[in-house]
Write a structure and sequence with these properties.
The chain is an alpha+beta fold. It contains 3 helices and 2 strands; from the N terminus they run E-E-H-H-H. It is elongated. The model has no long low-confidence stretch (mean pLDDT about 85).
Length: about 90
């Protein structure tokens, strides 16, 4: 059985490195980079420079998870705000 984790090469900060990621995380990472108008290499370099422990593959997975948790939280907050009745103007 083929492993769902694929080793991919990427150049960050001028050196070639590899990360092992599932297709879903790789695609999500590319979408985030595109949405931020960054190259994939630039986004991975940012993730790499911010990590304090663990390997780069894990740091990328956690970054993607955190990103989409933030998106979900924003969507819930917006939906809750839309359900709130409009405030009445103060009576003078």
């Amino acid at each position: 059985m083929k492993s769902p984790v694929v080793k991919r090469s990427i150049v960050i900060a001028g050196h070639k490195t590899s990360v092992s990621l599932e297709d879903a995380f790789w695609e999500a990472l590319k979408e985030i980079a595109s949405g931020r108008r960054l190259t994939l290499s630039d986004l991975v370099a940012t993730i790499d420079s911010a990590r304090t422990q663990g390997n780069l593959s894990s740091a990328i997975r956690l970054f993607v998870l955190d990103y989409y948790r933030g998106v979900a939280t924003a969507a819930r907050t917006q939906a809750a705000g839309e359900r709130m009745p409009a405030a009445s103007p103060p009576v003078a």
